[in-house]
Design a protein that fits this description.
By secondary structure, the protein is mainly α. It is 60% helix and 7% strand. The chain has a 3-stranded antiparallel β-sheet with strand order 1-3-2. The radius of gyration is 19 Å and the shape is globular.
Length: 178
């Protein structure tokens, strides 16, 4: 591991990193805002299983790094809009299970597809050799961040060969490749 990185290089990286975050956040905000969703509502729909299975509000809260009470309010608003449904667990009546509805899935598919298209267009505008370097650098960054952190490795899909590229998630929520 190269610890001999100068301050100027770190500053340049952080400046670029924050600029990328702003581009991503602006693209995300644009799409969920057009759909009439708050950031938390958009994230909630995005984290629900696509296969129609339910997860608990507690699990949603863990994945979102929010308190269950906050997520419950978000679930209330999405349930009112018929974007998701909520039921009590038959196995444990104390647990509340949440499932995305067809309406919620349709809205989420459209927003995610638009986001992917916008980010893909930006990526395609980068010269080929810079695209390869960008992908390699990002993969290296994720590996370095997750070294020794099993939770981060699992959430980033890095539980196998540390030098292999992370798996591509093919989803009904993603627009087709051009």
């Amino acid at each position: 591991m190269d610890r001999m990185v100068d301050d100027e290089e770190v500053t340049r990286f952080l400046t670029a990193w924050f600029a990328v975050r702003q581009v991503i956040q602006a693209a995300n905000f644009n799409h969920f805002h057009k759909a009439g969703l708050s950031a938390t509502q958009f994230m909630t729909l995005n984290l629900l299983p696509e296969n129609g299975e339910s997860i608990t509000i507690g699990e949603l809260a863990r994945r979102m790094n929010l308190k269950p009470a906050t997520v419950a309010k978000t679930v209330d608003s999405l349930e009112t809009r018929e974007m998701l449904s909520r039921t009590k667990s038959t196995a444990d009546g104390r647990l509340v299970l949440v499932r995305i509805t067809k309406q919620g899935s349709k809205l989420q598919n459209a927003a995610v597809g638009q986001f992917r298209e916008q980010i893909s267009d930006i990526f395609r505008a980068i010269p080929a050799h810079d695209r390869a370097a960008l992908v390699n650098g990002l993969e290296s960054f994720v590996r370095a961040a997750s070294d020794g952190n099993a939770d981060l490795q699992a959430s980033a899909g890095l539980t196998r060969d540390a030098h292999a590229a992370p798996p591509v998630k093919h989803s009904s929520r993603q627009s087709p490749q051009r």
